[in-house]
């Protein structure tokens, strides 16, 4: 079955770079039309899509965070890594990774990790 | 602000039918999907590509859409359906971005 799990630091200081790893199983990111997205959710707030990497190495980023984000994949390890630079307390949130599929030109996220909480504080 | 607009809160009596809506210009071109999120849990896909249910999702959940509005309908709401519901679709300009609605908190009375 498909599973995803996020890992990374629970606490980062302002201005530091956050690095999160999504380790998945049950599918391969080298398979046609497979994708993995990163999403975050500040406490008590809505979901916000951050970035996505596709089977063909295409990368897509939220326009509002484009300059701070980098997503990469290691197909042999079944991992996707997200880095976010210049962290700020407003970036405090639970960060999720999710497998992303496409039908009829739209995108949906069919399997999610349990999320990893990240607090930005000095 | 989100490109997809949802009512912040909706309530329904136990066993009754409720419709949760999502509005956005992009929905004229791309279908919506829906997620259920209970406190302390990750979102769960309940409807994808307008009206498809993943395996294991009860058939009381259904989706529809017309024009710039997508809807999630729960027919015969159960106590366990109380949760936040989020819609998502593709960014309206056709870029390969994903957008989410602001979420609707469903209360089952």
Oligomeric form: heterodimer
Roughly what is the average pLDDT of chain A, rounded to an integer?
A: 96
What is the helix/strand order of chain B?
EEEEEEEEEE
Number of strands of chain B: 10
Which residues of chain A form runs of ≥5 with pLDDT under 50?
Answer: none
User: Which structural class do the helices and strands of chain A define?
Assistant: mainly beta
Distance between the termini of chain A: 40 Å
> In percent, how much strand structure appears in the residues of chain A?
over 45%
- E-strand count of chain A: 11
What is the gist of this entry?
The complex is a heterodimer of chains A (122) and B (109). Chain A has 122 residues and is mainly beta.
What would you say this structure looks like, in words?
The complex is a heterodimer of chains A (122) and B (109). Chain A is mostly beta strands and 122 residues long. In chain A, 0% of the residues lie in helices and 55% in strands. In chain A, strands 2, 4, 5, 6, 9, 10 and 11 form a 7-stranded mixed sheet that branches. Chain A has a 4-stranded antiparallel sheet with strand order 1-3-8-7, with no helix packed on it. Chain A is globular and about 40 Å long. The N and C termini of chain A lie far apart (40 Å). The mean pLDDT of chain A is 96. In chain B, the strands form 2 sheets. In chain B, strands 2, 4, 5, 8, 9 and 10 form a 6-stranded mixed sheet that branches. Chain B has a 4-stranded antiparallel sheet with strand order 1-3-7-6, with no helix packed on it. In chain B, 42% of the residues are buried. Chain A binds chain B through residues 37, 39, 46-49, 52, 58, 60, 62-63, 96, 98, 100-101, 103-115, and chain B through 2, 29-33, 35, 37, 41-45, 48-50, 52, 54, 86, 88-90, 95-103.
């Amino acid at each position: 079955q498909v599973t995803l799990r996020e890992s990374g630091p629970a606490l980062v200081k302002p201005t530091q770079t956050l690095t999160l790893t999504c380790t998945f199983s049950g599918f391969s990111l080298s398979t046609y039309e497979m994708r993995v997205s990163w999403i975050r959710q500040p406490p008590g707030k809505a979901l916000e899509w951050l970035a996505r990497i596709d089977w063909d190495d295409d990368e897509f980023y939220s326009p509002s965070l484009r300059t701070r984000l980098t997503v990469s994949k290691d197909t042999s390890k079944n991992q996707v890594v997200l880095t976010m630079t210049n962290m700020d307390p407003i970036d405090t949130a639970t960060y999720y990774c999710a497998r992303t599929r496409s039908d009829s030109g739209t995108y949906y996220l069919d399997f999610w990790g349990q999320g990893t909480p990240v607090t930005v504080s000095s | 602000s989100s490109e997809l607009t949802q009512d912040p809160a909706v309530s329904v009596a136990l066993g009754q039918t409720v419709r949760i809506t999502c509005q956005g210009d992009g929905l004229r071109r791309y279908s919506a999907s829906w997620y259920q999120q209970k406190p302390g849990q990750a979102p769960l896909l309940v409807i994808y590509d307008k009206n498809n249910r993943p395996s294991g999702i009860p058939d009381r959940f259904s989706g529809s859409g017309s024009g710039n509005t997508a809807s999630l309908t729960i027919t015969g709401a159960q106590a366990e359906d109380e949760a936040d519901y989020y819609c998502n679709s593709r960014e309206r300009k056709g870029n390969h971005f994903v957008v989410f609605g602001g979420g609707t908190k469903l209360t089952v009375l």
